[in-house]
UniProtKB/TrEMBL annotation:
<keyword id="KW-0436">Ligase</keyword>
<dbReference type="Pfam" id="PF02686">
    <property type="entry name" value="GatC"/>
</dbReference>
<dbReference type="GO" id="GO:0070681">
    <property type="term" value="P:glutaminyl-tRNAGln biosynthesis via transamidation"/>
</dbReference>
<dbReference type="GO" id="GO:0050567">
    <property type="term" value="F:glutaminyl-tRNA synthase (glutamine-hydrolyzing) activity"/>
</dbReference>
<dbReference type="GO" id="GO:0005524">
    <property type="term" value="F:ATP binding"/>
</dbReference>
<comment type="similarity">
    <text>Belongs to the GatC family.</text>
</comment>
<dbReference type="GO" id="GO:0016740">
    <property type="term" value="F:transferase activity"/>
</dbReference>
<dbReference type="GO" id="GO:0006450">
    <property type="term" value="P:regulation of translational fidelity"/>
</dbReference>
<dbReference type="GO" id="GO:0050566">
    <property type="term" value="F:asparaginyl-tRNA synthase (glutamine-hydrolyzing) activity"/>
</dbReference>
<keyword id="KW-0547">Nucleotide-binding</keyword>
<dbReference type="InterPro" id="IPR036113">
    <property type="entry name" value="Asp/Glu-ADT_sf_sub_c"/>
</dbReference>
<dbReference type="InterPro" id="IPR003837">
    <property type="entry name" value="GatC"/>
</dbReference>
<comment type="subunit">
    <text>Heterotrimer of A, B and C subunits.</text>
</comment>
<comment type="function">
    <text>Allows the formation of correctly charged Asn-tRNA(Asn) or Gln-tRNA(Gln) through the transamidation of misacylated Asp-tRNA(Asn) or Glu-tRNA(Gln) in organisms which lack either or both of asparaginyl-tRNA or glutaminyl-tRNA synthetases. The reaction takes place in the presence of glutamine and ATP through an activated phospho-Asp-tRNA(Asn) or phospho-Glu-tRNA(Gln).</text>
</comment>
<protein>
    <recommendedName>
        <fullName>Aspartyl/glutamyl-tRNA(Asn/Gln) amidotransferase subunit C</fullName>
        <ecNumber>6.3.5.-</ecNumber>
    </recommendedName>
</protein>
<keyword id="KW-0067">ATP-binding</keyword>
<dbReference type="GO" id="GO:0006412">
    <property type="term" value="P:translation"/>
</dbReference>
Length: 98
């Protein structure tokens, strides 16, 4: 049996780092999806690029649009539905000091 490209433990570890709780079903689902993505990346890495000049660009063109102001929420409207303090939205602590 071949070793999977990504294990369920690795998926769980990634989810923990991102502070995401996953059910066992979701871990299995994301293991398959991530394995598919990683297999595709592996194929791309196998492409022979020795004869390619990476200093050239293929038809790069900037597409601009007019910068037109539009209506948006006021600060009061934006924070009215969220937990807030002094006009700022309060979010859970993600990064902690050790």
């Amino acid at each position: 049996m071949t070793k999977p490209i990504i294990t369920k433990e690795q998926v769980k570890h990634i989810a923990d780092l991102a502070k995401i709780d996953l059910s066992p079903h979701e871990i299995e689902k994301y293991q398959k999806e991530l394995a598919s993505i990683l297999e595709y990346v592996k194929k791309i890495q196998e492409v022979d690029t020795k004869k390619i000049d990476f200093k050239t660009h293929v038809g790069v063109k900037n597409v601009y649009r007019e910068d037109v102001p539009t209506e948006s929420l006021t600060q009061e409207e934006a924070v009215s539905q969220a937990k807030n303090k002094y006009g700022y939205i309060i979010v859970p602590t993600v990064i902690t000091k050790k």
